[in-house]
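User: Can you predict the 3D structure for this chain?
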Amino acid sequence: MPGQPKILEYLWFHDSASQKNVSRECIIDKSTVTSLLKRMEKLDLIRKETRPEDRIL
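Assistant: Here is the predicted structure, written as structure tokens:
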């Protein structure tokens, strides 16, 4: 999918980056990043983790 190589390259150099940072640094819309990351996770290209400090109260 278009956008995936850019995201994978960014994550290669910025392990454990937040979804917000991926969107900002790759210059990809937040909703597009969300759908790309979901697809990439299903293909086992990435692993998403929830960090307690990222949770909104």
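The helical segments are 4-13, 19-26, 30-42. The mean pLDDT is 90.
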